[in-house]
């Protein structure tokens, strides 16, 4: 494992990435931080009052739907106002430069698709989709927003509670999305883990699996993640600065 700063990632990373046919990427909240979406576990992150494990689970939702719905309605409003940043665009560009690029994201903001990446697995769902927990009918994302203070948003078809189509603790990840991400990790020549704390499984296991199957694995983060010691290299820096510089380096290679 080695550490390098934003503009001095290792020659090995540049060489391996320049030659790679199969590249797989895992992203987390850090890649959207520069777009203005708060992360989960940083000092100014989303969860200053509640730990993610306390709020992002079905028991918390059933116990206090108003709190959890209000929380997602607020985040939905934030997401509607933000745009992809240089990090998202660099990964979309990488897809055009390489024959096989697979992008697995833990983010629910849809910014990779908006930036133009097409081969994207949304491992933790998408906050813009809302559905009824009783009859499964999809609802409009605005249905979560228009509720009056103290009220709970309910399905117009059956009166059931509305929830966002995201993956909470204790819930399974979407089967096909995770299978695609696991396959890409096994096939990868180079694996990039970008802006994730590596605190949440099974997503955090993907870079480790990639390394076990022979990939060169680098993470890009403003600080070493919880899985840093398992990886080949930590590039310390902002995703929106490191990724464009890395692409430039492989274009010049
Ligand atoms: C920058 C930057 C910049 C800042 N540039 N970087 C194995 C071991 C132990 C436990 C488990 C295990 N396997 C499963 C579990 C249980 C559990 C789990 O992982 N628990 C942990 C707490 C240990 N996992 C689950 O329950 C998962 N399901 C599952 O395993 O199903 C099977 C099963 C079912 C039933 C019973 C048993 C098993 C589901 C996990 C769902 C996670 N959901 C959330 C909420 C999604 C909806 C929402 O958005 O509200 O997903 S929690 C939250 O954490 C969200 C994120 O996607 C996820 C990861 O966070 P992320 O993206 O890494 O963000 P941060 O904030 O943590 O980190 C940001 C990073 O960016 C930091 O490192 C910064 O430094 C960096 N950064 N600015 C680059 N500019
Ligand atoms: Zn319903």
Run of helices and strands: EHEHHHHHEHEEEHEHEHEEH
Mean pLDDT: 92
The helical percent reads: 25-40%
Sheet bearing the most strands, described? 7 strands, parallel
Work out the helix count.
11
Low-confidence stretches: none
β-sheet strand percentage = 15-25%
Principal-axis shape equals elongated
Number of strands: 10
Structural Rg: 19 Å
Write out the strand line-up for the largest beta sheet, numbering strands in chain order: 1-10-9-8-2-3-4
Structural class of the helix and strand makeup? alpha/beta
Amino- and carboxy-terminal Cα gap: 23 Å
Ions, cofactors, ligands: which are bound?
Answer: ligand BJW, zinc ion
Account of the 3D structure:
It is a single chain. The chain has 253 residues and is of the alpha/beta class. The chain is built from 11 helices and 10 strands. A 7-stranded parallel sheet has the order 1-10-9-8-2-3-4, sandwiched between helices. Strand 5 (125-132) and strand 6 (138-139) form a beta hairpin. Helix 1 (11-19) packs across helix 11, helix 6 (86-97) packs parallel to helix 11 and helix 9 (175-187) packs parallel to helix 10. Ligand BJW binds next to helix 2, helix 3 and strand 9. Zinc ion is lined by residues 132, 134-135, 137, 155, 157-158, 160.
What are its keywords?
11 helices, three-stranded antiparallel sheet, single chain, alpha/beta, binds ligand BJW, 253 residues, seven-stranded parallel sheet, 38% helix, binds zinc ion
